[in-house]
Each structure stands twice: as C-alpha cells, then as structure tokens.
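agent: user wants the structure for SAM-dependent methyltransferase from Actinomyces urogenitalis. delegating to structure tool.
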Amino acid sequence: MSYVDPRAVRKERGAFFTPEPIASFIARWALREGSDRVLEPSCGEAVFLRAAAARLSELGGGGQESQLVGVDLDAASVDRARRLLEADGTQARLSVGDFFDFLAPAPVQAVIGNPPYIRYQDFRGPSRLKAQRAALAQGVRLTNLASSWAAFTVHATSFLAEGGRLGLVLPAELLSVNYAAEVREYLLRSFTAVRLVLFTQRVFPDVQEEVVLLLAEGFSHHGPGVDHFELVQLANLAALERSSEPSTWRPQRRGDRWTPALASSPAYALLTGGQASTLPAAQPAQARQVPVMTPEGPDATPLFGELSTWGRIALGGVSGANHFFALSPQRAKQEGLRKQDLLPLSPPGSTHLRSLVLDDHALAALGRSGARTLLFSPAGRPSAAGRRYIVAGEATGVHQAYKCRVRSPWWRVPLPEVADLFVTYMNNEAVALCANEARVHHLNSVHGLYLTEEAKGIGAPVLALAASSSVTALSAELVGRSYGGGLLKLEPREAARLAVPALALVRRHREELAAFLPQARRLLAQAQHGQVREQVDAILGLADVVGAQGLEELRSAHHQLATRRRSRAKGPQ
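agent: tool returned. relaying tokens verbatim.
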C-alpha cells in the first residue's frame, strides 16, 4: 500500500489548516447573538465551526443543528469534522460536496473560514468555469489569472442575510494583485464596514504566502457600501488578544490597490502623483502646498513616473533545464564546446546584479569564480563537441523536460533580444536595476528592460543609479508582492509600475549621478544600500521638494514595509 502525505494532498486541493487562535478571533467577531447562524465553506476539520460553537455557547445559544453549517469537497475531512464536533457535544449540519454547488437551507448571519488557495496555473477546466460563473452571478467578472480564493470569497457572500458578516483568512494578494481589483471593489460596494488584519510575523507554519484576515460587515446586495476600509497591523497571533487602533484608508477608486495603506507617505504621493495619506489624519499644510511638478513653469514635468516610461520590460528566456544549458567557462572547456555552441549569459540568479553595472570585466570575474556565464544554445549546426553534449543530455532525459520537449530542436533556447538593463525579480534588500554593458543574454530569474531612444541617450548606468532612490525603494514594496520567506517579488507588470525619476529629472542631474557612480558601486559592494539611496535622493533634490521631514517620513515608510516583509522569514512566533 502506497503512502500519501496528507500535507501534499491538502496542498493539491488548496487546503491549509488554520491556527485555532485565528478561528476563535474571527468567530468572536462574527457572531453577535446566540441565535446567529453560521456557514463554514471548505470546512476541513471544522476549526471555525468548533470556534463558532464555543462562541454561540458564550452567547447563550448554539443548541440548534441548523445554526452550524459546513461543506467540504473532501469526505475524509468532513468525517473527521463530524467526529470532532460530536466529541465537543456540538450538533452541526455537514455536507460533502463542491461549495459552488452547495445550497444553504437558509441565509446565515455569518460566513467564516479559510478558502482554498489554488494558483491560477492549477485552477482550470470545469472547476474554474463554475467558480467564475458563481462570481459573475454576484456581478464580479474574474479573469483566468485569478486564484481560487477570489471566486470563493465573492460566492460566500451569496449565503449572507442582509446585514451579514464575512470573516475569512485570505492571501494578502487581495491588497495588491490586478485580478483582485474586482474583488476589492465588490467588498467596498457590498459592505458598510471592511476591516483588514495583517501580521508582521508569519502565522501559518506551512504557508509562505502572507495572509490577511478579512472582516466585513453590514452586507447588502444593493449597496451603497463604503468608500474606505480599516487596517490593523499586528505582530503575531498573541496580539489578537489586545485591542489595537485601526488606521483608515480611502483608495481613489474602490478597486485600486490597497497596499499603500500599509505605510502612508504624503511625500511619496506628492512626488509620484499618488494618494497621500490615511484618514482621518490630514496632510500637513506645508506638504499640501508643494507642487507635484518640477518648478519649470509651463514646461513642468512630473518628478517621478513609472518604469514603463523608460522602456519596455520583458521576461527572460526559459531554458527548461538550467543545470544543462547554463555553464561555467570551466565546464564548457571540459566539454570541449566551441564558440558557435555558446552565448554570453548573465548567470542565473541576481546576486551579481546589485552593483549597477555588469560589464565585460565583471562578467569575466564571475566566470573565473565558477559562475555560469555561458549558455549552450547553438544558433546553427552544433560543433562535434556540441553534438556529443546533446547526446549526453538526451541520455539523462533533459530533452523530456517540459520546455525542452515542446520546442524543436529541444537544445536551442528561445531568447529575447539583449536587454539594455536588468531588473531584479526576487529581492531581499530592494529591487535593483543593472546596466547590461556586457551585452549578455538573460534567463527568467531577472527581467530585461529595453530603453526608449530618449532613455538610451542618458545612459543605462546613470539610469540604474537614478533608480536607487528612496522613492523607488518604497515603490517596490508597494507594487511588488512579499512572501513568507521575506523576499520581494516583482513580475514584469509590477516592475513596469515602479516609480522612477522622470527622464527630464535624470537628464538634469546626469553629470552629478555619473560622478557618483564609481563610489556608489563601491558602497553597494559593502552592502551600504542606505548610503547610496540617501546620496541619490540628495542629487535629485528630493528634500527641496518635500522638505527634510517629508523625505525622512518617506524613508521611514520604506523601512517599515521592508522590515515587516523580512521579519516574516523568521517563521511563526
């Protein structure tokens, strides 16, 4: 009999068990009367229903089976849930089945739970279509890029009575990803109060994704909803027991990203033209008077714009088997490979791209250290040694790897054009731009930036340095996604939205930036990122626009978000 790891099975269907303190917190918030009815969709082993039963008992109710309703796709989980509830002396109405097919006996006052999290790549076919139809029935149109939780969240509201409450554990993607814009808009349109609870530290031991507790109340099918939400940021689960004062955030549009609420910065808003601050706190009078434009009269231009104004961003090549295709010079020499078999390559990863410039000298040094600076991808007929290397790869099954087997010939890696700059994809300290002076190819561990003619005239190294400002560092934390391991990830679309100095501003300070470039590279080699940011801020004259206090507040906002992100690498506390 083969052994199947239950954790692997749960992961396949997107199920992650919820810590009891979270379930109890949500149940205590959601249930207000002893007669309340509650539904836990995707109930698993009923951690929320058990917490709900305890809460209803506190309120003097909970004796009716119809008050506690649960459904789950997995029969074994439902069976365990039933036994656990019976052991507690609790009656509940449990069903095995798909939540999107489920019919509740009556509207409920609360829906609480932890929706399954299945990424869009694995959420497809009839299941996805059914989920999309359920969301559309509530007026929410989801794209094929939406993960499972999005439709699940929207569909859950269809079971609520007027004035009902929704308490869910969701991925923090809710705040940031484009596909969740419709969900964000729907929540603010359908509830009279929306509160989010986030944690600085990781609270799920087996989950790398950051989570957020969604607490929405006052449901109505017909609105009018609310134009803002409340945000509570806590250190860990223990902090749930203590009352915390929320901040309030009003997005310009309901569907806009909600990540700016995590660190308010009027100075950042003034420099980028974005939203300034949380409510009810107002901007200082002197900050409101600062123009968003550079002081050049009728020809004024924005100080900062999106990285897409510098050029086009594209993914790197996908080899399908980096261990075979990416080679060090020593390995290529051992295999006897010829120049016709190889292309110069920025080694997989991005550690070497934190120095603003990748030139021939740096590439050679990387090669001598054993880095994989060559790509096996013959443009024409491989050399004799190249053909032997191909045969050796086939002997080990490299040609059967997914990306290899769907291209012909399998050993020729499709590559984008050589990029002008690289934009780092996974980041610990901060996102970095690096000028590709060595004119090498890149794989999908970094993005390529292809400059406009205007930007090329300024120079890639200077642009890379200009993007090292505190504004860009904060922008990366706002537009990117943070993961439980403490890393900041930027997909191409997100990287395109990075706030960078306008080309006119960079051109004005080009000589000063170029003069600072050698020193900046030395400082970065010593991991003195903060010093580089401060000097770039000074060269660009940011304090002249937002004031010293405004600039310090902007840096503090960046520090707050970056520290919060990295702290989750420590695991649950």
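agent: one observation worth passing along. The longest helix spans residues 542-567.
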